Amino acid sequence: xxxxxxxxxxxxxxxxxxxxxxxxxxxxxxxxxxxxxxxxxxxxxxxxxxxxxxxxxxxxxxxxxxxxxxxxxxxxxxxxxxxxxxxxxxxxxxxxxxxxxxxxxxxxxxxxxxxxxxxxxxxxxxxxxxxxxxxxxxxxxxxxxxxxxxx
Length: 151
Description:
alpha+beta; GMP Synthetase, Chain A, domain 3; SH3 type barrels
């Protein structure tokens, strides 16, 4: 199945998302199930009603945009989840001052996992206050950065 780039689909749907009061944070195609999942976020969180409202709002515009070149597919709308990875500068900025987890591809100071409060972010570099002091990371060298979920 041939599909249009996800970035093009997100850009096309951004005005609709704005009208509904949500932000599209990611989208992905699953070729095995022939489905497009659009992940949305909103001030105050995402619930089933908001997902349904967004789904209904984008249904007709997506038909016009035709992201699958006429092939049938299933459209899913979802919250990105609490532990979704940070992907954009906005993700970092939105969670400034909050406790995050940093997972690395390669160890720094013998560790591949850090927790701490996000202090700053600029040009792909961020600083975290850990229990052992401040640590600075390059986002491109991290395997995953997300909110620290404490139960």
